[in-house]
Structures are given as structure tokens and as C-alpha cells.
Amino acid sequence: MHTAHWTGYENRRSRMIERLAQMGIGQPVLQAMAGVPRHLFVEEALRTRAYDEMSLPLGLGQTISQPYTVAKMTELLWGKTPQSMRRVLEIGTGCGYQTAVLLALGLPEIYSVERLRPLHERAKQHLRAAGLLAQARMVCGDGYLGLPDVAPFDGILVTAAPTEIPLPLLQQLAIGGRMVLPLDEGGVQYLWLIEKTAQGYRETCVQRANFVPLVSGSDAP
Questions:
Q1: How far is Cα 102 from Cα 124, in angstroms, rounded to an integer?
Q2: pLDDT by residue (tens digit) across 12-24?
Q3: 115 near 139, Cβ under 8 Å?
Q4: Which of 112, 151, 169, 205 could form a disulfide with 90 if both were Cys (CB 3.0 to 4.6 A apart)?
Q5: What are phi and psi of 34, to 5 degrees?
Q6: Catalytic residues
Q7: What is the value of pTM for the model shown?
Q8: Are strands 109-114 and 136-140 parallel, antiparallel or unpaired?
Q9: What is the pLDDT of residues 156-208, one digit of tens each?
Q10: Pairing between strand 87-91 and 62-64?
Q11: CA–CA separation, 209 and 66 (whole Å)
């Protein structure tokens, strides 16, 4: 019975990977996502939907992004020179699934910040269940401020939408670094890639997006 239960998830995960490949996601990210048991990161009642192409509620007004969104953001961060991507900061741990995918890519240093203590604790439980917790540095705090003590970061991934790019995060991005984030522009969200060069910033609008708002300490409830 137990074996059949897990086989069902394996089959669903295989179908998700095939779908993402058809949607244009490349091999490194596909391999990483194939190695992460997404169903361990969602509510038990929703586990049969874990590999469907949809976002799912986590409680506390938060969601886990649909697989394609996670894959696309990861691929944008990974870029063409992944060997330079060593220290990565994730803003908005949520359930920990995006963290797990970054870990599965083999990135050496990953820091993840979550503002909501219950989600922070739950993400640690999920990563522990997936056998990945020891590799991530989990912080409960205001992601808008980043982690200046650990900066600079080669990559910064923001999984909630601010109305403008947080200045502290721009300042903590290394030269040659990449930031991937959704921006809320008057109620319409777009996913952006920000690349920091010695001459300044290069900004690329990628696609429409749909994320929960990025909340800072000053406007937190």
C-alpha cells in the first residue's frame, strides 16, 4: 500500500517534468525539480494536486506557486553562467519548495528569509522531511531588508510582489549578479530579471505574473 502511494506521486512528478519540458524549461532545472518531492511541501488535503499546473494555498494568505512559475524563476536566476551563482538569497520562503529546488540545483550557499514565523517553522519541517534542511540557512525576518551582513549575493530571488524594487536588495546584489522578482505595477504584475553590471543595471521584463504582495515590517499587519 505504502509503495503504491509513493508510486502515484512519482508518476505525477514525471508528468509534471514532461509538461515543463514541453513548456520550454531546460534540463538543469528539470533535473532539480524531478528530485524534489513537491507533495511534501503542500497541505496533506491538497497533495493529490501538488504536481498540477496550479498554485495552491498554504494558509496565512500565502500560496505555493505553480510548477512552471518556480521553474521559470529558477531558470532566470540560473542564467547562462551558473558557475558564478554561488551565494543566493531567497525572499519569501513560504512552504520551502522553491528553496528545495535551488538546493537540488547544487547551489553552494542558500539563504532564505520568511517574515511569518509559522511558515518559517513549517518550511523547516518540509525541508527536513525532504532531507534538505541541513543545507539551507533559514532566517525569520523582514525580507524587504535582505541580509546585509551576508551580502553580496550572486543571485536574489523574490517570491512576493513589491510595488518597486527594494533598494536594500539592489544594494546587496553582487556585480555580475542576477535578481528575479515580480513587480506590481498598478495592480498588474510582471516578472522581471535585473542584472547588475559594473556600469549599472540591466532590466528585462519577462512575462505576466501573479504573486502575493511583498510585505515589509513598516506595513505588516
A1: 15
A2: 999 999 999 999 9
A3: no
A4: 112
A5: -65, -25
A6: 65
A7: 0.91
A8: parallel
A9: 999 999 999 999 999 999 999 999 999 998 889 999 999 999 999 999 999 99
A10: unpaired
A11: 11
Task: State the Cα–Cα distance between residues 9 and 48, nearest whole angstrom.
Answer: 8
DSSP 117-174: HHHHHHHHHHHHHTT-GGGEEEEES-GGG--TTT--EEEEEE-SB-SS--HHHHHTEE
CA angle 169, 113, 131 (to 5 degrees): 135
Residues in the chain: 221
Query: Which residues, including other chains, have CB under 8 Å from residue 121's CB and lie 6 or more apart?
Result: none
Q: How many alpha carbons lie under 13 Å from residue 140 in its C-beta half-sphere?
A: 10
- Which portions of the chain are predicted below pLDDT 50? 1-5, 218-221
Amino acid at 22: Q
Alpha carbon 190 to its chain centroid, in Å, reads: 16
Query: Which three-class secondary structure string do you get for 19-44?
Result: HHHHCCCCHHHHHHHHCCCHHHHCCH
Classify residue 176 by burial, with Cβ atoms within 10 Å: 0-12, 13-18, 19+: middle
In Å, how far are 10, 40, 72 from 50, measured between CA atoms? 11, 9, 17
Q: What is the pLDDT of residue 4?
A: 37
Mean pLDDT of the chain: 89
SS3 state of residue 104: helix
Reading the block at residue 86, the C-alpha cell is: 554561488
